[in-house]
Amino acid sequence: KLRFSALCAGSGPVVLLLHGFPDTPLTFSHQLKALAEAGYRAIAVTLRGYEPGSQPADGDYHAIRMAEDVTTWAKAMETGPVHLVGHDWGANVAYAAAAYAPECFASLATLAVPHPVRFSEAYAANPDQQRRSAYVLEFLTPGFELTVLEDDCSYLERLWRAWSPSWVIPSDLLATMKAAFRQPGVAAAALEYYRQAFDVASPAGQQTAALLSRPIQVPTLGLCGSTDACIPADVFQAAMCASDFPGGLRTAEIARAGHFLQYESPDQVNRLLLEWISAHQP
Q1: Band of the pLDDT at 78, cuts 50, 70, 90?
Q2: Per residue in 194-217, pLDDT tens?
Q3: 277: left (phi over 0), alpha (psi -120 to 50) or beta
Q4: For residue 225, which of 154, 199, 211, 257 is within the disulfide window of CB 3.0 to 4.6 Å?
Q5: Helix locations, 165-202, DSSP H
Q6: What are the two backbone dihedrals, phi and then psi, of residue 249, each rounded to the nearest 5 degrees?
Q7: pTM for this one?
Q8: Rounded CA gap, 1 and 66, in Å?
Q9: What is the CA radius of gyration of the chain?
Q10: What percent of the chain has pLDDT above 70?
Q11: Per 3-state DSSP, what percentage of the chain is helix, strand, and coil (rounded to 5)?
């Protein structure tokens, strides 16, 4: 049985927030406060594998498994459909969850990472994006988790600084991320997200591919940062196609924000999130 920890604030309609790589729920500190003040119960959950208690014995980190996790959490609220927010890998998980069980979600908001199928197409056709995403190929190297942990996780810190080049990173936020990755098994689990994303042979890999190809029936807000050096705003916008979101799609670009837009520009992000969520009450 897997156990997941979470940061929670407020009471009212539920908003689930899913962090990305390499990150922790603390990335949503500003959103937790703003949502609570606006009358919501905000819950930022630690994703599968990011703590020892949520590492499955079978090592399954396919997106369909995370979609099942999120759907289970949503149903456990017993409040009806909940709102879902995902950043980076949390965005990928959120797309999967919304496709898996759209009836569980009143609204969807994704930050920094566009629709995974369209992004894969953009990556294949865009040499600049291939260079930006070269780290993913490094993650496929057996044992690379040891490199990730070397020199106080300096590799992960370099990713943060590269992806958000103008961000003055709070030291406590960086320290919390590094402490999370130093826990047993976390670095290996986080890399498995990427490794298993390339799996098209196993039943779980095939189920995931089929899941991500489904149209998303949940009303979706996609936010990107104008200075994101991981997935630039133009790549993000091009990969968010209205035809993939029959439930409705809106996108917006956050000025002077990089990949971690929710922490870099919380006022802009919170305003858009609250407008979207309040407009899509179940």
Answers
A1: confident
A2: 999 999 999 999 999 999 999 999
A3: alpha
A4: 257
A5: 171-181, 186-197
A6: -140, 135
A7: 0.97
A8: 14
A9: 17
A10: 100
A11: 50, 15, 35
